[in-house]
Amino acid sequence: MASLKQLKTQFLEYIEIERGRSFHTVENYDRYLTRFLNFIKNDNPANITDSSVRKFRLWLNRQPTFTKATAGKERETLSKKTQNYYLIALRAFLKYLARQEVKSMPAERIELAKVSERSLDLITHFELERLLNSPNGSDLKDLRDKAILELLFSTGLRVSELCSLTSDINLRSDELSIRGKGGKVRVVFISDEAKKAIKKYLSNRKDMSEALFVQIDNEISKKGKNKISGPLTRRSIERIVKKHAIKSGISKKVTPHTMRHLFATDLLSNGADIRSVQSLLGHSSIVTTQIYTHVTDKHLRDIHKKFHNKK
User: Fold this and answer.
1) Last residue of a domain, one of 53, 82, 109
2) What pTM was computed for the model?
3) Residues spanned by the domain of 49
4) What is the rounded distance in angstroms from the CA atom of residue 97 to the CA atom of residue 245?
């Protein structure tokens, strides 16, 4: 019989090849499962039991977080949301074992921890306008940043999806096919403002990089061109969004995912149905999309209070 370590390797290969999961997802699952296997100190699938999983959950719940903000202070423990990532990976692994007819604990016996209702980090319409207009220079960096912000708000793309775009993007069409989580393809739509910003940015690019959004060094080459040093990373785009939020005088935390939230709530507030928004966001489950209805419900309540006659 194969050991748990061998089965874990087979499972990771399965989700990468057969299920088409991203390398980032495979890496995370590997980390979560390795931590679980190191905890139970056993290599027999049959020894994954209610008791061993419960002990692991107790141990996880008491683990401190490690961030720069908590350095030298009493650290908080892992959030319920983070703990659930471990449990989701373990459930997926156990389902794989069941399909391989390996005797172990049934996946459905693991219940996720209850988490508090997710809150959305949103900014006002006026703050959004300031943010989109923040990159107002004619240099290549500002042109790039303007294109990034307009495209994020126009399409609701995930930051990883934005990073994967290439410079041969078809701007003659309003539609753009995106390969999202799990390799699923969906169509998003580019606004005229976003197309205009991308065209202006690309017309000033003189490099041969295939990436749509690239690192631009401040140093100018001997040929009088900006030095390009490869595609932007997720972290780079997060820094760009944060920089322009600060420049715009926005005190709230603003991330690329904030732009995705704004995209969704803007659609719902203007009458779009939730199933359409689910498709545009690339959510596999409607439950994930329903977080935005809380915002639009409040919007409707405000309208009711403002315009409904009280007798």
Assistant:
1) 109
2) 0.68
3) 4-109
4) 47
